[in-house]
Amino acid sequence: MDQTLISGYAPTPIAARMENHGSTMLKAVLQTGQDLYARAGSMVAYEGFVQYEPNPPALRRAAAQWLTGEGAPLMKASGDGLLYLADYGADIVCVNLNNEALSVNGTNLLAFDAHLDFGVERVKGLAKLAGQGLWNVSLKGTGWVAITSRGAPVVVDCASKGEDETYVDPDALVAWSTNLKLKGKRTVKMGALVGRGSGEAFQIAFSGQGFVVVQPSEDSTDRLRVRG
């Protein structure tokens, strides 16, 4: 076989705990004592000695709220080796938290360091205006997080906007820095102007120091919601 034809797809040298291999695959380094939580079923390959534990005790309570009716969405990976993860060809973004907090849509969370503090939390201040609650996974501490996006995302640095706000459709929202200020806003839904909608649309306005990750998709089935 002519190896030169496939050499460009070989893994690159390890540079970080989590990094991309291409845009749609995650390469994570596992070492003894540095466990990883990952979306169940996301493993596509691994090297070395890797063990998996579905529905570990630390996740059971959170998993019950994570995806109603779907069962436990995460597994714990431990050992010493390389782990490759993917989510049906979705783009992957790696975030390195430095004593910071991140709020992530549960369906966009691919993997995170097991030592990070996490929980399922309701996004405060939006339920009354949105007519329904928004629930996200909160991750806090110092460590790595990998999130997915349905298509190449845009990451908006809200600090660079000064006093201007960044408005995001909740159905396209992937994650944001939790120190950002946010509020809801109603506008006329464009679909209503051509007979496809019923009136109003809801956006979330972000401002302050931090960033927002937005995917090029408005699939409402991707949002983790409950009725208010």
Automatic annotation (TrEMBL):
Gene3D superfamilies on file: Mitochondrial biogenesis AIM24
Short name of one Pfam family: AIM24
InterPro entries: AIM24 (IPR002838), AIM24_sf (IPR036983), Trp_RNA-bd_attenuator-like_dom (IPR016031)
Database matches in SUPFAM superfamilies: TRAP-like
Protein name: AIM24 family protein
The organism of origin for this protein: Streptomyces coryli
